[in-house]
Amino acid sequence: MQQTHLETLTEVGGREQQVSRAFVELADTLVDDYDIIDLLQRLVGHSVVLLAADAAAIMLADTHRKLRVVASSSEDAKLMELLALQAEEGPCLDCVRTGQAVAATDLSEAAGRWPRFVASVADRGAFASVHALPLRLRGQAIGALNLFHREPGPLPASDLVLGQALADVATIGILAEQAIRRGEVVNEQLQTALTSRVIIEQAKGVLSQAGGVSGDVAFARLRHYARENDQPLVEVARQLAETSLPAARVLAAHSEPSATTKRR
Known about the structure:
The protein is an alpha+beta fold.
């Protein structure tokens, strides 16, 4: 059935409101005392909703320029990033190496460019297209925001512009977290984010094992507990990893993954 002009205007207006709400929330976070991993997690959640992606993830380069996953909207997105790292090739890695956006609109046709990565993805059958957008800083990329879709096809130009704006917010967040207060160098800020993610992954494992829940549910409970108790996400994760905080207490925070933390 053909979409009416009124329906089109309503859809556009709704999207504009979503974009406004997302950037207002991110801006409010940036001017407060924020947790960088929670900010990046919010950002990938907004990316999924605003860009009609099935999943999204952010990778950052450490002090040795090795890429690591620091935020993902789902376990499938995290797996895609890990497959790229294992294969040492793919859109995400090329994006960071060149500092330019890289699109694989149909992965089934990209075997000539990334044979190992495409073969690994084909075995899982998770996604059919990937768009990688650089986290830009002074002419180079310190990481990438990666958007995954289950159907092949290019992103509209307007979505690419919006996606790059979200990637730039991630860069600003990383640089601002410690620079405003202590003037630390960029590499130290990146290493802090990467180390925090390792602690959070350990905490997710503790919760998954204790409660028999998925990684996505474990992370949702972790975030919910941190917010309800007004504690930094990484501090709650550290307490869990060190067993000073009982897993049962966090698991009791019944917050399932929301529309901004799981695939649409």
